[in-house]
C-alpha cells in the first residue's frame, strides 16, 4: 500500500496544477485580444474587418483542433507514464510554441503554431485535474475542482489586465507571445520535482509487470461496454459548454475591438477583463453549485442561464453602452459555471486506470466539434455581413442542447474516486 502524500506535498501538487491551468488560460485568452492586431500587421493593405473576423475564427479553430488531439493523446499519456510527467510535457508544448509566435511572418505560420499550442493546452486539463483530484481527499474535491476551474479563467483575467497596461496594436504585438514562453520553467518542475499521484502509483504497482498499457487498449476500454455509455455521456456534457464558449461568447472581444477601435484601444481588454472576472467567480462556484443542487440539476440550470444571458449580451446591449460590461460580467459568470462543474464531475465518471484518458477525451473531443463549429461560425459571420450580434446570438443557442444531454448522464453525487458508490443513481 502506497502512503498518501504529506500535507505540504498535496499543496505543492495543487499549486502546480493551478499554475499550469492559469497559464493554460493565458493561452486561451491570447488570440481573442491579439487576433485583429496580428492580422492587421501580417495582412497589411489586404486587411478588412470581415477578413479579420474570418482569421479570428481560423486561429480559434486551429487551437481547438490541437487541444482536442492533445487532450486525447497527452491525457492518455498521463495514464501510462504518470500525471506529473504528462503535465510537464503539456506545459512545455504550449510554452515553447507560444513563444515561437513572436517570430512569425505570415498568417499561415501563426495558424500552425496555434495548433501546436493547442496540443499542450488540451493535455494540461485532464492531467492537472486528475492529479489534483487523486491527491486530495474526497471531502475536499468540490473546493479543489472549483480552484481548478477558476485557475483557467484567472489566466484570462491576468492577460486582460496586462493588455490594459500595455496595449496591443498592429505595430506592437509580438511581445505578448514572448511572454507566452515563460511557463516553460513550470513544465520542467513538473517533470522533475512534483510528486506523483499515490492512487496512480498504487494502480501501477498492482498492474501486471509484463503487460504495459498502450493507447489502443485504453481507447478500446473507453469505447466498449461497460464504459462506452459513460464515455459518450462525458463527451456530450463536456462538448456543449466548450462549443458555446468558443463559437458564441468569444465573439464579444473582437466585437468590442471593432466598435471601440483606435478611439478606445483598451476597451477590448476591459471587455475581456469583465468577462474573465465573472468567469473566475463562475468557474469556482460551479463545483459548489453542483454539490448544492446535485450534478444533473445544476447542469440544467447552467444551460438555460447561459443561453439566456448570451442572447441578452448580443441582442440587448452593444460595446460602449453602459450596460455592456455588466452584462459581459454576468454572462462570464453563468457561462463558466460549467468549468467548475466539469473538473468535479468528469473524474467521477471514470476508474483510476483510465481516468486521465477518459476525462481528456470527454473534455476535449468537444473541441473537435468546437473547431468545426467555429469554422462554420466564421463562414456564417461572413454570410451575415460581418454582424457580431447576429453570430453571437445564433451560436449561443447551442447551450440549450445541454438540457437534452444531461438527461442521459448519471448522477455521481454519491461517488468517490475509488469507485462508484452503491447509492449513485443512473440517469434514465
What class would the helix/strand composition place it in? mainly alpha
CATH class: Mainly Alpha
Distance between the termini: 38 Å
Question: Could you give a short account of the major beta sheet?
Answer: none
CATH architecture level-2 label = Up-down Bundle
Strand content: under 5%
Number of helices: 18
Tell me the CATH topology. Growth Hormone, Chain: A
- Strand tally, please? 0
Overall outline: globular
Average pLDDT for all residues = 87
CATH superfamily: MFS general substrate transporter like domains
Topology order in helix (H) and strand (E) letters: HHHHHHHHHHHHHHHHHH
Could you tell me the radius of gyration in angstroms? 20 Å
Domain module count? 1
Summarize the structure.
By secondary structure, the chain is mainly alpha-helical.
How would you explain this protein's 3D organization?
- This protein has 428 residues and is mostly helical.
- The protein has one domain: MFS general substrate transporter like domains (Growth Hormone, Chain: A, Up-down Bundle).
- Helix content is 74%, strand content 0%.
- The longest helix is centred in the first third of the chain and has 37 residues, at 7-43.
- The two termini are 38 Å apart.
- Residues 419-428 have low confidence and may be disordered.
Amino acid at each position: 500500500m502506497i502512503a498518501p502524500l504529506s500535507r505540504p506535498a498535496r499543496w505543492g501538487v495543487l499549486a502546480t496544477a493551478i499554475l499550469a491551468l492559469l497559464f493554460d488560460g493565458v493561452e486561451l485568452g491570447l488570440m481573442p485580444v491579439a487576433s485583429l492586431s496580428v492580422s492587421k500587421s501580417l495582412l497589411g493593405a489586404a486587411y478588412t474587418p470581415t477578413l479579420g473576423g474570418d482569421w479570428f475564427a481560423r486561429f480559434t479553430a486551429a487551437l481547438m483542433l490541437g487541444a482536442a488531439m492533445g487532450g486525447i493523446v497527452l491525457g492518455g499519456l498521463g495514464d501510462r507514464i504518470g500525471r506529473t510527467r504528462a503535465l510537464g510535457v503539456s506545459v512545455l508544448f504550449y510554452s515553447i510554441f507560444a513563444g515561437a509566435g513572436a517570430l512569425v511572418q505570415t498568417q499561415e505560420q501563426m495558424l500552425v503554431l496555434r495548433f501546436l499550442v493547442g496540443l499542450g493546452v488540451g493535455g494540461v486539463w485532464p492531467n492537472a485535474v486528475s492529479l489534483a483530484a487523486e491527491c486530495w481527499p474526497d471531502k475536499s474535491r468540490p473546493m479543489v475542482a472549483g480552484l481548478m476551474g477558476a485557475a483557467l479563467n484567472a489566466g484570462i483575467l491576468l492577460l486582460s489586465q496586462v493588455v490594459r497596461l500595455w496595449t496591443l496594436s498592429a505595430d506592437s504585438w509580438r511581445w505578448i507571445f514572448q511572454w507566452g514562453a515563460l511557463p516553460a520553467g513550470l513544465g520542467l518542475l513538473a517533470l522533475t520535482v512534483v510528486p506523483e499521484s499515490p492512487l496512480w502509483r498504487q494502480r501501477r504497482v498492482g498492474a501486471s509487470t509484463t503487460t504495459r498499457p498502450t493507447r489502443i487498449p485504453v481507447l478500446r476500454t473507453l469505447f466498449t461496454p461497460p464504459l462506452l455509455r459513460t464515455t459518450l455521456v462525458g463527451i456530450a456534457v463536456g462538448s456543449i459548454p466548450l462549443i458555446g464558449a468558443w463559437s458564441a461568447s468569444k465573439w464579444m472581444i473582437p466585437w468590442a475591438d471593432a466598435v471601440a477601435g483606435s478611439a478606445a484601444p483598451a476597451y477590448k481588454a476591459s471587455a475581456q477583463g469583465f468577462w474573465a472576472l465573472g468567469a473566475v467567480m463562475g468557474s469556482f462556484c460551479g463545483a459548489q453549485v453542483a454539490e448544492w443542487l446535485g450534478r444533473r440539476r445544476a447542469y440544467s440550470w447552467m444551460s438555460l442561464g447561459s443561453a439566456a444571458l448570451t442572447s441578452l449580451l448580443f441582442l440587448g446591449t452593444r460595446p460602449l453602452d453602459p450596460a455592456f460590461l455588466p452584462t459581459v460580467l454576468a454572462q462570464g459568470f453563468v457561462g463558466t459555471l460549467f468549468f467548475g462543474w466539469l473538473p468535479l464531475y468528469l473524474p467521477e465518471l471514470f476508474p483510476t486506470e483510465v481516468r486521465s484518458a477518459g476525462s481528456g477525451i470527454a473534455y476535449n473531443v468537444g473541441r473537435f466539434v468546437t473547431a468545426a463549429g467555429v469554422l462554420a461560425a466564421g463562414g456564417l459571420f461572413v454570410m451575415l455581413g460581418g454582424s457580431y450580434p447576429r453570430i453571437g446570438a445564433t451560436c449561443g443557442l447551442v447551450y440549450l442542447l445541454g438540457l437534452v444531454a444531461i438527461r442521459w448522464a448519471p448522477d455521481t453525487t454519491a461517488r468517490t474516486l475509488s469507485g462508484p458508490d452503491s447509492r449513485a443513481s443512473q440517469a434514465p
